[in-house]
Design brief:
- With 271 residues, the protein is an alpha/beta fold.
- 32% of the residues lie in helices and 26% in strands.
- It is elongated and about 60 Å long.
Length: 271
């Protein structure tokens, strides 16, 4: 995991340190506030704009206090509609994009991919470096265990979370799907009634909502007479904020392209 920790608080351009300008989309939300707090504590960042959705509009309006420029980063934790506004802002200014917004539809995902042809874009359903380690542990476990072992994913989040299952749960499920050859049509979102025996090739995903859970993801891998549990618990949104700042420093100087959190751990190569 060397290189996955939050890097030094300055980016290098032509041998000189520079401060990275940030625009926070969804600035007053839980993640927006956590990111600004972490950026202030880390140094090497300057908030150039804070954008939130006016009550009378359906999408965040991209208005910033200072002009954006290449080397600046738009950090998006808003809504799918807000992400589309962020894409437009980044392309017009040549700024990079870091987005943790989930729940995008196919067309919106395509718009993000198109943006990556012009600027550096890094997306993640979860910016915790611990979740990155969880994904690697899951891969290692499934490479050892027989395909007859069943996999179930359980996620818990606070009562105000808008989408279900979580983007992280879907990322984990897709990781399993790639390793086990399970298409998304084989994902089972909850169970009810007389459903009969669990069929082979099924992957269960279960969403729990309540209280103030920040994020709790458990992967259960069950065989005959034994089972394995892999779990990650986020106790504070600061865990995500530090990963966001690491991502912002990465994309601030990266060439145009689509990146993911794995690239931070591997110097841009992914895993």
């Amino acid at each position: 995991m060397s290189g996955a920790a939050v890097p030094s608080s300055t980016s290098r351009t032509s041998g000189q340190s520079r401060v990275i300008g940030l625009v926070l989309l969804g600035a007053s939300g839980r993640m927006g506030r956590a990111i600004e707090e972490a950026a202030t504590a880390a140094g090497g960042f300057r908030i150039k704009g804070r954008i939130d959705r006016p009550q009378s509009q359906t999408a965040e309006t991209p208005v910033v206090a200072e002009p954006l420029a290449p080397g600046d980063v738009v950090v998006d934790f808003s809504s799918p509609e807000g992400t589309m506004a962020a894409c437009d802002l980044c392309v017009s200014a040549g700024a990079a994009l870091v987005s943790g917004t989930t729940g995008l539809n196919t067309a919106q995902e395509g718009r993000v991919a198109a943006t990556a042809r012009s600027v550096a874009v890094l997306t993640a359903s979860n910016f915790s470096l611990g979740v990155l380690a969880l994904r690697r542990a899951l891969q290692a476990a499934l490479e050892v265990l027989p395909e007859s072992w069943d996999v179930e994913i359980v996620e818990r989040h606070h009562r105000l979370k808008a989408d279900a299952p979580s983007g992280t749960a879907l990322t984990l499920a897709r990781d399993v799907g790639k390793l086990r050859g399970i298409p998304e049509s084989g994902f089972r979102h909850g169970r009810s009634g007389r459903i009969g025996p669990r069929p082979p090739g099924e992957l269960g995903i279960h969403a729990v909502r309540g209280g103030t859970w920040v994020g709790d993801h458990t992967i259960l891998v069950a065989g005959a007479g034994e089972w394995l549990e892999l779990r990650h618990v986020a106790q504070d949104r600061g865990a995500f904020a530090h990963g966001v700042l690491a991502a912002a420093q990465f994309v601030a100087t990266a060439p145009a392209g689509m990146y993911h959190l794995e690239h931070l751990a591997t110097g841009g190569r992914g895993i």
